[in-house]
Amino acid sequence: MKAKYSQFIKQEAKRLGFLACGIAKAEFLEAEAPRLENWLQKGFQGEMKYMENHFDKRLDPRLLVDDAKSVISLSYNYYPEKQQTNDSYKIAKYAYGEDYHFVIKEKLRELLASIQQEIGEVSGRCFVDSAPILERAWAEKAGLGWNGKHSLLIQKQQGSFFFLAELIVDLELEYDQPTNTNHCGSCTKCIDACPTEAILPNNTIDGSKCISYFTIELKDNIPTDFKNKMDDWMFGCDICQDVCPWNRFSTPHQEPLFHPKEEILQFTKRDWEEITEETFQKVFQKSAVKRTKFSGLQRNIQFLKD
């Protein structure tokens, strides 16, 4: 039955538009514990104090879901067909369309409902970058890909432009083999291309130096040391993914809700510099960019412009 249930879940995930689906046993992430502790001790979380909370929950899904047996990991493509004009301040591609948290969570809820309808009483919780869970570790454990040197998950046939999500359930399933092979080899393109030197050896990111951190997470002023090192990114950053050879396999997504508003693609630097709060609210009405607020986006643009 385990194999039959697992097959059904993967078929449903495909029907709902997920790129890939893998399943791992819900257990303590022993190998990740010292890595996470070391990362925090070195202060790589910067001002992201929430990363210091719920240390045990990050490592053990059974503390997130009662009687958890399985972690279902899923990926969802967001690579856009069209990209911003060249003369523009840049937005990370994942934020072109509607906020992925809501779009994907809805699909996860639908998947859980299908599981309950087909199998019976199954309890679980849906996670989309919204709880203390090490999603890349679980995706790797479920065989979805490997962690690249930029610390993002890479799939051979799809590259890395996809979201990760999890469904943790109290149902025993057939488990996939973890990805044990890293296909980055001696390539260091992402490390070499990072203008703020945030990508360190051993698949580690110094989050406190990352452009995404400066433009989204940091509430204070961006340190002046990073002047002229931001490469015109005003929300997030895709440099390490854009240079990754595996992303030559990226194909445009088929999700209508991720299609960008025309302004995002067409606005020039001057348009962004002159943007009003009213236009900001209209363009980013349901976007992840709202997280930085109008004042945050203005701060970022000012920093790039000065």
UniProtKB/TrEMBL annotation:
<dbReference type="GO" id="GO:0005737">
    <property type="term" value="C:cytoplasm"/>
</dbReference>
<keyword id="KW-0671">Queuosine biosynthesis</keyword>
<feature type="binding site">
    <location>
        <position position="212"/>
    </location>
    <ligand>
        <name>cob(II)alamin</name>
    </ligand>
</feature>
<feature type="domain" description="4Fe-4S ferredoxin-type">
    <location>
        <begin position="175"/>
        <end position="204"/>
    </location>
</feature>
<feature type="binding site">
    <location>
        <position position="164"/>
    </location>
    <ligand>
        <name>cob(II)alamin</name>
    </ligand>
</feature>
<feature type="binding site">
    <location>
        <position position="129"/>
    </location>
    <ligand>
        <name>cob(II)alamin</name>
    </ligand>
</feature>
<feature type="binding site">
    <location>
        <position position="194"/>
    </location>
    <ligand>
        <name>[4Fe-4S] cluster 2</name>
    </ligand>
</feature>
<keyword id="KW-0846">Cobalamin</keyword>
<feature type="binding site">
    <location>
        <position position="240"/>
    </location>
    <ligand>
        <name>[4Fe-4S] cluster 2</name>
    </ligand>
</feature>
<dbReference type="Pfam" id="PF08331">
    <property type="entry name" value="QueG_DUF1730"/>
</dbReference>
<feature type="binding site">
    <location>
        <position position="58"/>
    </location>
    <ligand>
        <name>cob(II)alamin</name>
    </ligand>
</feature>
<feature type="binding site">
    <location>
        <begin position="237"/>
        <end position="238"/>
    </location>
    <ligand>
        <name>cob(II)alamin</name>
    </ligand>
</feature>
<protein>
    <recommendedName>
        <fullName>Epoxyqueuosine reductase</fullName>
        <ecNumber>1.17.99.6</ecNumber>
    </recommendedName>
</protein>
<dbReference type="InterPro" id="IPR013542">
    <property type="entry name" value="QueG_DUF1730"/>
</dbReference>
<feature type="binding site">
    <location>
        <position position="244"/>
    </location>
    <ligand>
        <name>[4Fe-4S] cluster 1</name>
    </ligand>
</feature>
<comment type="subunit">
    <text>Monomer.</text>
</comment>
<keyword id="KW-0560">Oxidoreductase</keyword>
<keyword id="KW-0963">Cytoplasm</keyword>
<feature type="binding site">
    <location>
        <position position="190"/>
    </location>
    <ligand>
        <name>[4Fe-4S] cluster 1</name>
    </ligand>
</feature>
<feature type="binding site">
    <location>
        <position position="219"/>
    </location>
    <ligand>
        <name>tRNA</name>
    </ligand>
</feature>
<keyword id="KW-0819">tRNA processing</keyword>
<dbReference type="InterPro" id="IPR017900">
    <property type="entry name" value="4Fe4S_Fe_S_CS"/>
</dbReference>
<keyword id="KW-0479">Metal-binding</keyword>
<dbReference type="GO" id="GO:0046872">
    <property type="term" value="F:metal ion binding"/>
</dbReference>
<feature type="binding site">
    <location>
        <position position="237"/>
    </location>
    <ligand>
        <name>[4Fe-4S] cluster 2</name>
    </ligand>
</feature>
<feature type="binding site">
    <location>
        <position position="184"/>
    </location>
    <ligand>
        <name>[4Fe-4S] cluster 1</name>
    </ligand>
</feature>
<dbReference type="Pfam" id="PF13484">
    <property type="entry name" value="Fer4_16"/>
</dbReference>
<dbReference type="InterPro" id="IPR017896">
    <property type="entry name" value="4Fe4S_Fe-S-bd"/>
</dbReference>
<feature type="binding site">
    <location>
        <position position="210"/>
    </location>
    <ligand>
        <name>[4Fe-4S] cluster 2</name>
    </ligand>
</feature>
<comment type="pathway">
    <text>tRNA modification; tRNA-queuosine biosynthesis.</text>
</comment>
<dbReference type="GO" id="GO:0008616">
    <property type="term" value="P:tRNA queuosine(34) biosynthetic process"/>
</dbReference>
<keyword id="KW-0408">Iron</keyword>
<feature type="binding site">
    <location>
        <position position="153"/>
    </location>
    <ligand>
        <name>cob(II)alamin</name>
    </ligand>
</feature>
<keyword id="KW-0170">Cobalt</keyword>
<dbReference type="GO" id="GO:0052693">
    <property type="term" value="F:epoxyqueuosine reductase activity"/>
</dbReference>
<dbReference type="GO" id="GO:0031419">
    <property type="term" value="F:cobalamin binding"/>
</dbReference>
<comment type="similarity">
    <text>Belongs to the QueG family.</text>
</comment>
<dbReference type="InterPro" id="IPR004453">
    <property type="entry name" value="QueG"/>
</dbReference>
<dbReference type="GO" id="GO:0051539">
    <property type="term" value="F:4 iron, 4 sulfur cluster binding"/>
</dbReference>
<keyword id="KW-0004">4Fe-4S</keyword>
<comment type="function">
    <text>Catalyzes the conversion of epoxyqueuosine (oQ) to queuosine (Q), which is a hypermodified base found in the wobble positions of tRNA(Asp), tRNA(Asn), tRNA(His) and tRNA(Tyr).</text>
</comment>
<feature type="binding site">
    <location>
        <position position="187"/>
    </location>
    <ligand>
        <name>[4Fe-4S] cluster 1</name>
    </ligand>
</feature>
